[in-house]
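Section 3.1: Structural characterization of target chains.
Under the original work plan, the team committed to producing a structural model for every single-chain target entering the pipeline before any wet-lab resources were allocated. The record below documents one such target. The sequence was received from the expression subgroup and is listed exactly as submitted; it comprises 294 residues.
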Amino acid sequence: MSTGTGDKPSRTGTGDKPSRTGTGDKPHRIGAIVLAGSRGPSDPVAAAAGVSHKALVPVAGIPMLARVLDTLAAVPAVGPVVVLIEQPALVQDHPAFAAALARGTLRILPAAGSPSRSVLAALDTLDPALPCLVTTADHPLLTPTMVEHFLAQLPAGTDAVAGLARAETIRGAFPHSRRTYLRFRDGAFSGCNLFALRGPAARAVVTFWRRVEQDRKQPWRMVRLLGPGTLLAFALGRLRLDTALRRLGRLTGTTLGVVEMPFAEAAVDVDRPDDLRLAEAILAGRQAREVPAA
């Protein structure tokens, strides 16, 4: 499923591939923002690993943030990358990031106090003509294939797009993994920490995000902003995802869309110690499949 809905006309059901220049086959590059802010000393994952920032927690021996940066570097369409972290020196002085820094396309900025504020600050440093991919440092299972699928399926005419995975996709692979789901008439979905911001209008979505980011684990409060009728429909399981996107689009003056991610691992971020154990088990399985039999 790849859906774009809002006040402006948009096509649905067919994704547009990353736009290309008019003078050759190379795609326009897309900027990337990686949110690596800390939740403080109480973060259970960082505390368990004995590090100051969750982004620096090793997953199968490699810091989560380094895994995300290596994934983005492997996607040809992704150009300049901005990392938001409270203390840029944590990345600049860490040997695990030497290769990423040597590529010359990485910029480290201080986090701005909240995810939405950090994104707005990062957007100010990127070429406004470029679309922008937003992801998080606690996404060590992210792969180039996932990123390329997301970019290839962005619905035409949308200003902002989120990657979502269906509950059955996640539960089929990881039946015991705890996820937060948004439940709509056409299915229950979990976020995949993948967003695309496409053009100046997308800033309105980030500004609206500031109003709801504290309630990201409480879907009822987010939906309540869309009005009592929408809240009732959501409570009764009658609200369709495309209807919610259209109503949210009216609030922000934008056209919004989603890309359904067929990868269960795309929805597994590392928020808890059990998520870390799951991520390490998955990475161990990947490595075993990649090693040829003797």
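The CA atoms of residues 164 and 191 lie 5 Å apart.
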